[in-house]
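S.,

Sequence below, as promised.
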Amino acid sequence: MRSCFICYLADVEAQFPHACTTQEALDRKTCCPLWKDGSPCGQNSNRGICAAPAREALTPFDYRVDWPSAFYTYVCKCFDKYDGFECGVCLPGWKGPNCTEPHLVERKEITDMNDTERESFLSNLDHAKHNTSNRYMILTSNDTTVFSNFKFHSATVYDLYVWLHYYAAKKYADTDDDAAHRGPAFPFWHRVFLLFIEREIRLLTGKEDFYIPYWDWTRHANCNICTNDYFGAVDPDGLIDKASRFSKWRTACVLDEGLGMICSRPDDPSPAPITRKPGMDPTADTLPNMGDVNDTLGTDNYDTTPYNSRSRNSFRSKLEGFDIPRDSRHLQSSMHNLVHDYLNGTMSHLPTAANDPLFMVHHSFVDKLLEEWLQCHKNASYPESGEIHKAQRGGAFMAPFFPLRTNDWYWDKDTLSLGYSYREHSIPHPGLNRGATRKAEGGEGRALYSFIFCDT
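The prediction came back faster than expected:
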């Protein structure tokens, strides 16, 4: 019998579905909630079934490895275009009561949004930060090596998003590995992460065309969206200006390296504010530039041995920022990592970085670069090797998402098949060479630009 504290939240369907946090569900190791037709996983409506997924038999030291076997043996397996923990929503790219209507949004560069679009995006984020999720609860733990150490708490929709990243980004006990970084799953995990929060905000607000714009950080040496019109200016102490709505945001899931803790002190009565000191770290005092991007996109190997932070000549490692170009201006990191280090505050601590809303527009651009590379390397494949940490192997289930999808399931799913595309910035990049520009199809009068030509 597991000792488990359940925080009851009325009308919660329940990243752990509420129905799956009951003592009975944990004892039975079953997470197959009833859909509105009264059957588990919507089985009576042919939406899905309750099934035991095939998995490698493991007894992990850290219960986050081999997701979700420490918690559940039986989970929903969704059919056709259905998705979600109870097969009650549509796969990305589809909408309608039976998920038969195509749905596509176009992610713009954030400074290309008009005033109304920008305000709507920011106000929806603020709404998500201050409204409790009616679908999920978060797990906390004092030690991820103790399998009976589970407590569940309600959380706002945005703080649920923070928790997802904390859960996957915190290093496993006694290792340097996690489920979302330093390995081949890195860009795909974050792609799913953005799709998750887009869906949850759409469900919260009723705005089905809500999307996360991207921030092209190659256009300026310094943060051009660290202003009150966007994510808030900062004072010399790193605090966000009081005129910005984000000055009122407080962090959830504080950084705590001890005992592999997950989401330490979620009910802290005096949580810390978001902080930034952009460019104040002399080893990360500028943002990645066009040369860094072109060097990354020009790398042919998706990932290389040993499939971690030491990989070299690897697109994934360069994109993540571990494989630093020789002309990297003597910086300690590049690309994705450099942006985190440059912001020098909440964003620079990996497990807690998603507390800063800049995180999502940063990762939307990382996702755009992933798509550019994939479109130019259609013969590439997700790597297979025993060197890859078991949580990031192609056949491992991506943690901690429902329904279960393997890391390599997303390899051949381009953005259009997942319901979104990227619109290139309306202004040509100031660093583009004439030979590196191309006009893309996208409607009358839309001159679009991309970083590179594909050779194929």
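The chain is about 20% helix and 5% strand.

Coffee later?
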